Amino acid sequence: MSETLSGTTHEVSATVMDLPRRDARDKLRGRTRYTVDRVRPDMLHAVLLRSGVPAGRIVRLDVEAARHASGVRAIATGQDAPGLYGIGIADHPLLAIDTIRYHGEPIVAIAAETETEARAALALVELEIEPLAPVLTMGEALAKDARLVHDGWRDYEVLTEGGAREGNIAWEARTTRGDVDAAFARPDVKIVETTIRVGRQSHVPFEPRTAIGSWENGRAHIETSTQVPWTVRNVTGRVLQLPPGRVRVTVPPVGGGFGLKFDATIEPITALLARITGRTVVIENTRQEEMATCLCRENAEILIRSAVTADGEIAGREAVVLMDCGAYGGEQIFLSTMTAHTLGGNYRVGAMRLVSRAVYTNTPPNGAFRACNGVYNTFALERHTDEICQALGLDPLAFRKKNVLGDGDLGATGQVFEGNVLRPMLERMDALRAVTGTVEDKADGRLYGRATTVGTWFVFVGPSAATINMNADGSATLVTSGVEIGSGTMMQSLPQIVAGQLGLTPDQVVVREADTDSAGLDVGVGGGRTTVSIGAASIGAAEELRNKLFGFASELLQTRPEDLELVGGRVAIKGRPGSGIAVSAVVQHAQSVSGPVTGTGSFTGKPVPFMSGCAFGHMIEALEIPVFVVHEAEVAVDPDTGHVEVLAYRVVQDVGRALNRRAIMGQIQGGVVQGLGYALHEAVTIAPDGRIREDGFETYRVPLAGDVVPVVADLYEGAPSSGPLGTKGAGEVPILGVAAAIGCAVANATGKLVRELPLTPPRVLSLLKGRERAPEFPHIAASFEANTLA
Amino acid sequence: MTVTFQLNGERCRFHEDPMTPLLDVLRREKFLTGAKAVCREGFCGACTVHVDGEPMMSCLKPVGLVSGCSVTTIEGLSSGDQALHPLQAAFEAADVVQCGMCFPGMVMSLSAFVRDNPEATRPQIKTAMAGNICRCTGYERIIDAVADYLAVQKAGSQAKEAAHV
Amino acid sequence: MDMQDGPERIFESAATVAEAVAARASGAAVLAGGTWTMRDPRRGVTLPERIVALSKIAELQSIEVFDDRISIGASVTHSLLAGAVSEIVGLEGLAAAATGAANPAIRRVATVGGNLCATEFAAADLVPALLALDAEVELALADGPRLLPLSEFLKARAALLKTALLTRVIVRRDVIASAHIRLPLRKAGDYPVAIVSVARSSDGTVRVAVGSVEPVARRWTALEAALGGKVATAEEAQALAEKTNDFIGRDGIETEGWYRREVLPALVRRAFAALRKGGAA
Ligand SMILES: Cc1cc2nc3c(=O)[nH]c(=O)nc-3n(C[C@H](O)[C@H](O)[C@H](O)COP(=O)(O)OP(=O)(O)OC[C@H]3O[C@@H](n4cnc5c(N)ncnc54)[C@H](O)[C@@H]3O)c2cc1C
Ligand code: FES
Ligand code: FES
Questions:
Q1: Domain count within chain A
Q2: Is C108–B56 a contact, with Cβ atoms under 8 angstroms apart?
Q3: Which among A603, A622, A646 is the end of a domain?
C-alpha cells in the first residue's frame, strides 16, 4: 500500500496540475442550485418556536390553537422525537423536552403551507416557562454549588467511553507525560505563566443551514446543506428512533460550511414533519436564527505555565484549557482531545501535563470551526512562548528554531514525531521574508510590529469509502459520500487523483453528489480530511479497477498484466505510450463477457503509537498525519484609535505534496482572511439574557476586501505523510496560525501583553491606555491536580 | 396594486404587496435563484441585480420602486448558451470561485464597475467591493482577476487604437 | 414572508410635492430609497400600511448650485451628491460624507432625505457633515413650506416628520474648507462609531459637529467656543477637544460609549489637519 500511497513519479506527474474547477461556470452564472435554491411552491414551510430565555422549565405547552390555524399541516414537539443525540455523550434532544437550556433552543416546529402562516401559528402556541437562574459563564458553571445545566447528566447514554465527567463538566481529557512536578521544582528554571481568554467565532456561511425533508416509501429522504451526510442520517435515526438505514441523505452543492455544518441540527425536524404530513417540508434558517444558534468556535479560557531554563530549554509545562460547550456537549467533547496536539504541540518539552474540560453553560451550543481548538490554543501557546522569551531575554525566532518539534521528539501523549519539518519551515520563512522584504515604512507613524509563529495541526483521518464505475465511453464515475463545500476538493483534487490513477483526464471523471444510499460510510468533509481519506479510498477503488482492466486487456493484447499501464485513455504496454488498446474498448469488452467494471476502496486511519498511561479521555491519542505551519504578520497599530492594520502576511505551509498549487493558494488566502476576522474583527458576545447579541452583518463584522492583504505563501513539500501521493489536507490549516501571528505582532507593536481576542479597536485602545488587565480565573485552581476529576 | 417592470428583457407583472423585496419576487415567484438572500440588509451584495443598468441590492428594493424599470439578474447577464460575460470568463480562468454563493452578486456588481471604471486601480477595485462580501476566498484573487481583466481590456483597446492610426 | 397575506397595503407614487404632502396628511409614510425602511422588520417595526414613494417627483432629485448657496433635493442619492459636490471648494467634508458612507450599491439608492429623516439612526454621515455647514432644511407641510436650520430640525424631527416632507437641504457657500472624519471599526467601512465634521467659513468661524457618539448628532459648541475663531493647529485643536469633551457616548453592540467619546480628540486633530490641507481627509 505504501508504494501506491506515496505514488510513482508517473502517477504524481499525472496528478499534479492547476486544474480549474468544473463547478465554477455554473456558480458564476447563478445556475448552481444550493439547497436554499431548491424550495418549490408545493413544499410546506416549517418554522421553529425558540426559547426566549436561557434556562427554565416548561410548565405548560399547548399547541391546540396553533394546530387549527390557517394553513397549518403539522406540529411537532419534543415528545415526538424522544431520542437524544450527541458526540461522546447523548445529551441533546431535537426539540426541548421539559427543560430549556439556551436562548434560541427550539421547542416547537410548525409546518404550514406558507412561511407566513407558519409564523402566524407560532404566535398561537401557549407556552409557559418557569425561568431558572442561568449559568452563563464557565466561571459560574464551575463555581461551587453551581446549578447543573443537566441535572440528569449521570443518566445519559455514553457513546464513547473514557472521558471523566461530573456536573457541569461535560467531558474532561487529560494527558500527563513525565514528572512535571520535578521539572517545575528544578533550581535552574524560571516559571512563566500566561492566562488567555478568547471569544466565539461565527462561521457565517453564505448559505444558511437549510434542509428539505420528505417521506418516501416509508423512509426519510433529507436533502440538506451539510458537511456530514452520514451524521445527519445517524442522528435522524436516533432522535426519531428509526433504524438509521431508513434515512437517506443527499447533498446538493453546499454554500460554505467551515465546520458549522458538521452536525445535524434542523434536518431531523424536516423528516419528522414530512413523516407526519406526507409532504415535503423545508426549513431554512433566517440569518438571525443562523447567527443566534450558530455552533460557533467555542470561547475558551486558558492557563499555561512553563518551567524554562536560562538558555531556553522547556523543562516542564502544564496547562488548563476550559472550553465552553454551551448547553450541549456536541463537538467540544471531541475537541477536548485536540489540546494535547495543539497546545501540546509545536515545541519539544521535557515533561508536560494538560487538561481540557468541556463545560456546560446556558448559552447556545458551540461546535466545530476550521482548525477547531487549534486556533486559540496556538494563539495561547505562541503568546506564552513570546512571554517566555521576554522573561528570559531570548530572541523569539531563535528560541523557536531551537525548540520546535523535530525528528524523534515526543508530543504530549508520547507520540514520536517523524522528520524535521518546523525548523526548515522557519528557515524557509526567513528566505521568503528576504524575497518580499518587510514594510515597516507602511506603518506611517503608527506602532509597528512583526511576529513569526508556528502551529501544529493534523489531518482528521477516518473512514471513507469510494466506488468507481468504468463507463463504456472510457469515462469513470466516482461515487463517494464526499460533499463539495466550496474548497474544491470534490471538484479538483479527487478527479485529479482518480484521473492520475486511471490514465484519464480529470474531465473524464464524473463525480457523484453525496447520497448515503449510493456510497459507503464517510465521517464527513472537514478536518482537512477529504483529499486524504476519500482520496485514499478512491485510490483503492482505482487499484481494483486497474487490475480488472489489466486482466481483460492482457487477454485482448496477449500481454502479461504486469507489463501494462493506464495512460492517455489507453491500456498501453509499459513505456510505449499510444500502444495497446483504448480503455473504452476494454470496458466494452468486459461488459459483454462478464458485466460492468467497478472498483471499490475503503480507508480509515491507522493507529499511531503513543505512550500508554499518558492520555485519558482522548478520542485521538496520536496524530497520524501532523501538519505544520509558520505564519508571519506585520501590523500597524493606530495609537489614537486602536485600529490594527495588517500590512503584510506570509505563510509557509506544510502540504505534504501540492496536487493543485493554485487551489491551495486560494485556500490559504481564504483561511488566513477568516483568521484575520477572528483575530481582529469578529466578536460574539452573550447578553445578560443568554442571547448572542451579534445577530446580523451589521454587528458581526467579517473582513471586507479593504481589510485584507495578499497572503504570500510558500508551500513546503516533502514532509512525511501517509496521505495518498504524500498529500496532506491543505484547506483547514491556513486559519490555524493567524490569531497567534497577529496577537504576537500587536504585542510587539504596543509593548503590551496581548491576552484576549478579538483585538477590536476598543480593546486595543484600552490595552494601549493600560486598562486591559490580564484575565483572572478564580475557577481555575492554582494546583494542576485540583483542576482534574482524576 | 400591480407593478410592471422589465425582467431580463421581458415584461413582468407582480400583483402582491409592492413593499415585497425585489429579491423575493425573483427567487420565490420567478424562480430566478441566482441572486442570493444572504444578509437581507444591504451589507453583503449577494443579491445584487442591475436596475436600469446600475447594480443595486435587491433585498432592500421594494418591488414597487422598480415599476417601469428594467431589471437584469445574473441569469440575464449571459443567458442560455451565450458566452460568459468576459469578467465571468476571467473569474473562471483564474480559479477564484469557492463555495460560489457570493459570485452572482460579485459579477453583477463588478461587471458594472469595470464598464464604468476602465482605468481603476487596485485600491479603487477594493473600495468598490465594500458591499460585496465573500466568506471563502479572502478577496485578493478576485481583485487580481479584475485588475488583470482591466489590463487586458486596456491593452486590447490600445492595440485597436494603434491599428487605427 | 410570502406576499398574499395581510391587509392590502396602500402604495402610491406621488408625482408632485403637493401630492406627497396630501398623502402624508392622510397618514402615508414616506418611502425614499428604502434602504432604511426595508430593514424595519429587522428592528421589530412593521412596515407602514400606507406609503407614498417619492421616486417619481422630479423636483426632489436635483442639485442646484448658485453663487451663494446650493440646494440639494431630498431624493438626491449619496452617489449623485458625491458627484455634484466633489469639485466644489469648501464642500470637501460633504463629499467625503457622501462617498464614505455605506457601500456603492447603497449609495446609489440611499437619499439625503432618508439620511436626515431616519430618526433612530445615530450614525448618519450626512447629518454632522451638514451641521458643520450650518445647513438649512426645507419642509413641505400642509400649510406650506417651512425653512429651518438643520439643528432645529433635528431637535423637533420626530414631531415634524409626523406630517412633513423634507424637500431640500440648503447649504450656504461661505465655507472655504471642510472635513469629515468618520471612524468605522473595520478599515474597509462600516457604520462609523464616531464622526467629526468641521467647516471653516470665510469669516474665520469654525464649526464642529459630532455624529454617532450620542443618539443624535450635534454641534460641539464647547469646542467651538474654546477655539474662539482663532486659527488652531491640529494639535491645538486636539488639546482643546480633550478639555471640552462633554459627550456622553452611547453604548451599542459594536462598542461601548467610552470608546466613541475617547477617540473624539484624535478625530478632531485629523479633521483640523485635513482642514489645513484645504479639506478632504
Ligand atoms: C448596508 C448599509 C450600510 C449603511 N451605511 C451607512 C453609513 O455608513 N452611513 C450612513 O449615514 N448611513 C448608512 N446607511 C444608512 C443609509 O444611509 C440610510 O439608510 C439612508 O440614507 C436612508 O435613505 P433612504 O433613501 O434609503 O431612506 P428610506 O429608507 O426611504 O427612508 C428612511 C426614513 O426617512 C423617511 N424619509 C425619507 N425621505 C424623506 C423625506 N424626504 N421627507 C420625510 N421623511 C423622509 C422615511 O419615511 C423613513 O422613515 C447604511 C445602510 C445600509 C443598508
Ligand atoms: S442579501 Fe442583499 S445585500 Fe445581503
Ligand atoms: S465563494 Fe463562498 S462566499 Fe464567496
A1: 3
A2: yes
A3: A603
Q: Is B45 in the pocket of ligand 2 (CB under 6 A)?
A: yes
Looking at the fold, whether A424 and A524 belong to one and the same domain comes out as no
Please give the single-letter amino acid code of residue C8: E
Grid-cell match 478639555, residue found: C243
Beta-bridged to residue A570, according to DSSP, are A567, A582
Sequential DSSP letters for chain C? --SS-SSPPEEEE-SSHHHHHHHHHTTPEEESS-TTGGGGGGGT-PPPSEEEE-TT-GGGG-EEE-SSEEEEETT-BHHHHHHHHTTSTT-HHHHHHHHHSS-HHHHTT-BHHHHHH-TT-TT-SHHHHHHHTT-EEEEEETTEEEEEEHHHHHHHHHHHTTT-EEEEEEEES-EEEEEEEEEESSTT--SEEEEEEEEEETTS-EEEEEESSSSS-EE-HHHHHHHTT----HHHHHHHHHHT----PPP-SS--HHHHHHTHHHHHHHHHHHHHTTS--
Mean pLDDT, chain C cut into blocks of 10 residues (281 residues total): 57 97 96 98 94 97 96 98 96 97 97 97 98 98 96 97 97 96 90 97 95 98 94 96 98 97 98 83 50
Nearest by Cα to A116 from C43, C34, B57, C41: C41
**Inter-chain CB proximity A760 and C189 less than 8 Å:** no
**Residues A43 and A26 reside in one and the same domain:** no
Query: Tens digit of pLDDT for each residue in C114-135?
Result: 999 999 999 999 999 999 999 9
Instruction: For residue A565, give its domain range.
Output: 9-32+462-603
pLDDT at position B165 is: 55
| Residue B55 CA to ligand 1 centre (angstroms) | 18
What is the residue with the minimal CA distance to atom 2 of ligand 3?
B99
Does residue A116 belong to the interface with chain C, where contact is any CB pair within 8 Å? Answer: yes
Q: Which domains does chain B have, with CATH numbers?
A: 3-76 (3.10.20.30), 86-163 (1.10.150.120)
| Residue A467 shares a structural domain with residue A432 | no
Closest ligand 1 atom, residue C78 Cα? 21
Other beta carbons within 10 angstroms of residue C119's beta carbon come to 15
In this complex, the chains that touch A, judged by 3 or more CB pairs closer than 8 A, are B, C
- Is the Cβ pair B131, C104 closer than 8 Å? yes
Residue of C nearest to B42 (CA): C106
* pLDDT lower than 70: segments of chain A: 1-10
**Is residue A96 within 8 Å of residue A107, measured between CB atoms?**
yes
Among the candidates A284, A312, A341, a domain finishes at: A284
Q: Write the CA distances from A440 to A444, A530, A633, A646, B145, integer angstroms.
A: 8, 40, 11, 11, 28
C-alpha–C-alpha distance, residues A348 and A417, integer Å: 10
Helices then strands, counting H and E runs in chain B, come out as 6, 5
The reply to whether A749 falls in a domain is yes
Q: Are A121 and A79 in contact (CB under 8 A)?
A: no
Same structural domain for residues A454 and A411? yes
User: Looking at residue A581, what DSSP letter applies?
Assistant: E
B16 at interface of A, judged by CB pairs closer than 8 A:
no
Task: Identify the contact set of chain C against chain B, taking CB-CB distances under 8 A.
Answer: 1-4, 6, 9, 11, 13, 31, 34-35, 37-39, 42, 47, 51, 53, 55, 102-106, 108-109, 188-189
Q: What is the CATH number of the domain that holds A477?
A: 3.30.365.10
- Note the ligand closest to the C-alpha atom of A705: 3
